[in-house]
Design goal:
The structure is a homodimer. By secondary structure, chain A is α+β, with helices and mostly antiparallel strands. Helices cover about 30% and strands about 20% of the residues of chain A. Chain A contains four helices and five strands; from the N terminus they run ααααβββββ. In chain A, the strands form two sheets. The first copy, chain A, has a three-stranded mixed sheet with strand order 4-3-5, with no helix packed on it. Chain A has a two-stranded antiparallel sheet with strand order 1-2. In chain A, a hairpin with a 7-residue loop joins strand 1 and strand 2. In chain A, helix 2 crosses helix 3 and helix 3 crosses helix 4. The radius of gyration of chain A is 18 Å and the shape is globular. The interface between A and B is medium-sized, with 33 and 34 residues. Strand 5 of chain A pairs antiparallel with strand 5 of chain B. The structure holds a DNA duplex.
DNA sequence: CACCCAATCTTCATCACTTGTTCGTTCGCA
DNA sequence: TGCGAACGAACAAGTGATGAAGATTGGGTG
């Protein structure tokens, strides 16, 4: 995701208006590596723009996704996660607390064609490393 | 997943009763490679046991999962998928129609520890190959 | 073979997440 | 500054999955 200023420009270019709500979402997402859910973004944004509705947050997040500024992730944690990091990378998902972390691994050796794939056209291989983060390490497993 | 007969034995061993509903679910899942959703199982089972409730199907599927007889998959297709194949394997997911296919690839080379993982303990690396199946190959993309 | 109790099934309700709709308000360019 | 298009807020719907409770049934027992 680009900087909030660049996003302002980009939104204007696409005929989208710049509202305090949008600015606030831009600001909250900038540098956020926590892979927040819509609700988490909503709570963070509410501190800057009291009274904003969850619906509006969803709208803005979907707009950002459509512009390719953020990535939409369904990692099976019960809610969709949003990732301002749109570079090629993969994710660690903690079964204990549901937290998500980026991980950079070289998958160039990963086959995406061959007998096993038949005529299926692989476009986006995705790796989800499920396990336990440090704080959930020893604990038994309810999310 | 074992054979329906073996499942009957296994359920009895666990103090679970054998009902027509359970037999029907066993039968439907046997050899099923379509990775059905709960609703798909429900529809298939309804042909054998008219009047069965969706709630009961969910219950039986969860029991099978707890016994480790089937795998529960959240592949981001909107609903949970159930897989009688519990061997180590991965999945092709079609962005077009949401269909799922098994794929056997050697992932022994896939790292699960190292600097990139820090103190995160990877237990189940999961690979989802997203792309297009044959019939959706050329078509544009609504699911 | 009928009985009985726990287990199970069905029905209804609830919950969490996400999106559709409507209407008053606001943006932003002229 | 003003106007039209776009937006935000409130409300409600919709989907997938689970919780609760009363009616029913499996299957060992007398």
């Amino acid at each position: 995701m680009r900087s909030p200023d660049a996003l302002v420009t980009r939104f204007r270019e696409h005929g989208l208006k710049i509202t305090p709500q949008r600015r606030a979402v831009f600001g909250v997402l900038e540098g956020d590596e926590s892979h927040p859910s819509a609700d988490a973004v909503f709570r963070a944004v509410s501190a800057r723009v009291p009274g904003i509705s969850l619906r509006t947050v969803y709208q803005i997040l979907n707009e950002l996704a459509e512009l390719g500024e953020i990535q939409v992730l369904d990692l099976g944690t019960g809610s969709i996660r949003f990732d301002p990091n749109v570079d090629d990378h993969h994710h660690l998902v903690c079964d204990g607390c549901g937290s998500v972390r980026d991980v950079n691994v070289d998958l160039s050796g990963l086959a995406t064609t061959g007998d096993a794939f038949g005529d299926f056209l692989v476009e986006r291989p995705q790796v989800i490393y499920r396990g336990r983060c440090r704080s959930c390490g020893a604990l038994p497993g309810a999310r």
